Structure formats: structure tokens, C-alpha cells
Predict the structure.
Amino acid sequence: MCGALESCSGGVCQSACTTSQTLCQPDAGTPYCANIVSDSNNCGACGNACVAWSSCLAEQCVCAGQLENCDFPDPPTKCVDLQSDTQNCGFCHRTCGACQYGRCINVLAANQTAYAILTDSNYVYWATSSTIVRAPLGGGTLTTLANGQAHVDGFVQDATNFYWTNGDLVTMSKSGGTITTIKTGVAALGMAVDANNVYWSDPNSLTVNSVPISGGTVTKLATTPYYPGAIAVDSTNVYYSTSGNGVFKVPIGGGSTTVLATTFGQSRTLATDGVYLYWADEGMGHLYRVLCAGGPLTTLSSAGASRILLKGPTIYWTPEVNNSNSFESTPVGGGGDTFLAQVGKGTPYGLAVENSVAYIASADGNVYSILYVF
């Protein structure tokens, strides 16, 4: 007797399925006809069902659209979205705390309300209200390098030392150790350092000053009727912003002040590559550049940049607008903004970048790392 979906022809049981179908005869259940070339429930063989978000193509289960088979060359056990899957972020088998657009986001340090953040080739460093802490770039054990500070303002570095103000201008080796006073009674809103001097803007005396990194006589470089803020330095000039007034330069040894631009908002950070000066004007919501020698102002972005970081051909920035917690970038020559990630809560306090990883000091009290390239 022929089975279900079979007929007798010339004394032989033959499948009643079409030529494109296979007769499937499960151990339990009713026989059926299936196209094992394209049937997602019988792909390549009877009863071989493809997982969710996959389909059967040429007898192979294939993930749909932009989803990825991370079991390749085996058939997929799960189709994953590399843009958002925390176990397969950006590429297969990369595990992250969070995944945005394929970019890996991890909490590098929890419960660390950092107000400034720096990196070098080995470590990320940050300053809280009373401590300076470091961690390996890839995460790991935190080391407190300095504590018990009345406050930590400024916080800049050269190859070997940190500099900041705690009521005095002080310095310490980047490996920790003794904190040495360079100058007593110093307040700073902005600070920069080169091979010879530390530079700072003093909100009390409304001056821009310098002192040798080893200590000595303070040089008053400029006096302004407005609060001086952010500072940057190159081999020739010191650049500084003032609250609601403009951006200026003065020779590093002192001399006449030159107005580079007149702006209307606060500039939290300045950056220079020795050819151009870059800054964000929070009042206007613009990211600007101007030739260090002077010239017309160029608007690079109008997306509300606040804190900026110049790294090679790219300006990385966080916005002030609407308390945003995003991390974005703009080429130094302009050409459009790139949204990179959204991290933490509230406007970030600090931003650093090293080896295609961004480090964000978030207002939520955590320090995050973001691998922003694939």
C-alpha cells in the first residue's frame, strides 16, 4: 500500500509532489511536500527550519537584509544586528556594555564624577573635584594619583607631568608622587602648557599669565575687561577667549594683543594646529576656525558644539544644546557633522580621544569608553 501523498503507477509507489518538491515523511505526523530549495521550514532538508529573521535561499538559511550570520560557515543559530547587538557589536563576537550604530560603549569607571579628562598612549586620566585618577586605556584597575585636593582646576599635561590649580598652581609626575607648588595663590579658568611654561587665565585679576614650569617669575601677558576663559598655545602665541567678547592672541613672551574674532558666547575650549585656531561659541551654537595669522572667520558647524578636542584632521565635540549627551565630529576643513554616539546622561564634562577610542566624562558620574570606528 502506498503512503500518504503517494500514488501507484505501474506497480510502483510514486510521490504525488511536484518535480520541484520533496516528499517529507516525519517520524510523527503527516507526510507533506516541501520545496527544500526555498522553504524556510524545510531548508536543504525536510524539517530543517531557519531561525527568525532568516530565509531559505538555494537550500541555505540566509539572514535577512543587513542582519549577520555570526555562525558562518555554519547555518545561523541567530541573525544579529551588528549595529545594536551587545554580543556582536560592529563585528561578530565583540561584546560591549552597549552598542550604538556598531560602536562599542563600555563603562570604564563607575561613580567617578570627572570634570576633566586626558589620555596618553597608555592611560586615561581624569580629575574629580578632589582627586586625580588613572586607568589603563582598555580598562582595568583604577589608581588614585592624587587626593585631598581642595579642587582641581585647569588640569593639563605634558609628556611627563600634570599641572592644575587647587588654590595654588601645582605639578606632579604622571606616575604620581609628590605634588610640587609652582606658584601660590593662583586661580585659573583656562590652562595650557608647552615645553617651557604654564599659561593660565585668571578670573580674579582678569589677566592671562605665564610662569616657567620649574617655577619663577610670573609674566602678565594680557589684561582684559572681561573674564578670560579658554587658552591654547603654539610655538609663537597664546590664544585666549573672553566671556561674551571675543578670541585674542598675544605673543608667548608678551606684547601687543590681537583680536582674531569677535563672538558673543562662552568658549569652553580652544585648540590650535599652529595654522588655524578652533573653538565653539556656545552663544551662537557654532564651531569656528580662523587663521592664527588672522583673517576671515569660517563656520565649520552650526550644531551647538560646546567642548572640543582637535585630533589630527578631525574636531571631536560634545554639544551644550538641550543638555545633549551626544558625541560628534567635524573635519577641520568643514564638510558636515558626524554623529558618533550618545552616552551617559546630560552634557559631558570632558572628552579625550586615543587610538580611535573616545573617553567621555559624563554628568551621570561615570567615565565611558567608545570605540567609534569599526
